[in-house]
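Lecture notes, continued. The same structure-token format from the folding unit now serves as the input rather than the output. Read the line below as a description of shape only.
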């Protein structure tokens, strides 16, 4: 069977966790291949409600093996907490979770530097999650990273840590904080080493074997397309590659194997933190979207900025990622709106422009062009059949399909796993 990749097509928080949870039931392997615990997937199923940041959402499927591959960066404390949380729910994790030793580790100085850099920027801060993601990726590409391979070798870990603290403590003290203790860090990470050792194993041979056997593989994308380090709203982005090609480096899967690419989008748009947001609604409608959709971050708890669906953005996301399918989530949030608007394009100084025509400053100046559609004023929550949707809801979905240029294959109508329409 071909490999399926799931990607968030907005700024994250699109509901990928639920779509992954639904599709993983038929998968042999579910792989997390990029990002860190700055991403959060909410999964609600018969076992309870879970906010996962590192462990693949497919861990709840009995036959699936969950892999965390080399492109992911790890906060080991968060990872161990998630393992404990899932085991308490009665889910077996041992022998079902495999973590690549090539994964880079988020160290205490990464999180501290993340905070200090943001403070030092003042009004120019980018609004990071403070999880140390940027600094750990910076260390990775500048040959200063510490990987799980290093942690498993106490002597090598100590040597590398000493080198990094020699550099990092100079920056930390220069920015007004107390230098970090190598002894304390080694003591803490020795405990992590012992607990994580059973899970660490190179996943590459397993993946290649699965490809040869034509087993089902589900790649679990984190965050959203417009947080991509190259194609997102830079510098208000993340440190990793979000687009489809990132799976090649992050999981060791050749592009030719990826046949299905599912873009996940909300029926409206949200964003957490700073950065341009062309369709943002700073009014009662925006507040209503936030309230009806319970729009608060899984990772940070921050209130999300809300706005109308931006088809201009999603069409670009579909093109660059090669989406074969779209999954629309939170359709039920729009149930009580009399009118619903869809952004069909942008203008600048009265002239049509597109997302790729400029930078962040450009995106703060553009004006969205809207198409207004009638709402359906009918409860769709829990609807499981496309034909049972209200007529205006179907018209809305048909319009989105036409504007994006990609078929809509999944429509989520509620929080629960079973609240979903598989569009035939």
């Amino acid at each position: 069977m071909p490999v399926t990749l799931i990607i968030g097509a907005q700024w994250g928080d699109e509901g990928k966790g639920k779509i992954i949870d639904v599709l993983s039931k038929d998968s042999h392997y579910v792989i997390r291949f990029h990002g860190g615990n700055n991403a959060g997937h909410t999964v609600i199923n018969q076992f309870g409600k879970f906010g996962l940041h590192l462990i693949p959402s497919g861990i709840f499927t009995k036959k699936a093996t969950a892999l965390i591959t080399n492109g992911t960066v790890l906060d080991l404390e968060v990872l161990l907490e998630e393992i404990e949380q899932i085991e308490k729910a009665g889910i077996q994790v041992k022998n079902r979770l495999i973590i690549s030793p090539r994964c880079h580790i988020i160290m205490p100085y990464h999180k501290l530097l993340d905070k200090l850099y943001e403070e030092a920027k003042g009004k120019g801060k980018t609004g990071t999650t403070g999880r140390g993601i940027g600094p750990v990726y910076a260390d990775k590409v500048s040959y200063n990273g510490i990987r799980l391979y290093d942690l498993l070798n106490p002597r090598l870990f100590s040597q590398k840590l000493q080198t990094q603290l020699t550099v990092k403590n100079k920056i930390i003290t220069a920015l007004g904080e107390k230098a970090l203790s190598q002894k304390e860090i080694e003591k803490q990470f020795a405990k992590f080493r012992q607990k994580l050792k059973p899970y660490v194993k190179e996943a590459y041979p397993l993946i290649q074997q699965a490809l040869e056997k034509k087993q089902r593989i589900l790649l679990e994308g984190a965050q959203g397309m417009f947080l991509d380090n190259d194609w997102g709203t830079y510098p208000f982005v993340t440190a990793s590659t979000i687009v489809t090609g990132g799976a090649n480096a992050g999981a060791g899967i050749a592009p030719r194997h990826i046949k299905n690419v599912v873009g996940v989008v909300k029926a409206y748009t949200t964003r957490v933190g700073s950065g341009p947001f062309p369709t943002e609604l700073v009014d009662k409608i925006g507040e209503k979207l936030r309230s009806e959709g319970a729009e608060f971050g899984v990772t940070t708890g921050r209130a999300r900025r809300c706005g109308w669906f931006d088809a201009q953005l999603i069409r670009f996301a579909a093109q660059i990622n090669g989406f074969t399918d779209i999954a629309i989530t939170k359709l039920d949030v729009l149930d009580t709106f009399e009118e619903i608007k869809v952004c069909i394009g942008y203008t600048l100084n009265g002239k049509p422009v597109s997302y790729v025509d400029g930078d962040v400053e450009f995106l703060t100046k553009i004006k969205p062009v809207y198409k207004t559609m009638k709402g359906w004023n009918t409860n769709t929550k829990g609807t499981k059949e496309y034909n049972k949707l209200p007529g205006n809801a179907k018209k809305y979905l048909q319009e989105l399909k036409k504007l994006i240029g990609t078929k809509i294959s999944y429509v989520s109508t509620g929080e629960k796993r079973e609240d979903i329409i598989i569009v035939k």
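Point for the exam: Residues 265-422 form a domain with the Adenylosuccinate Synthetase; Chain A, domain 3 fold (CATH 3.90.170.10).
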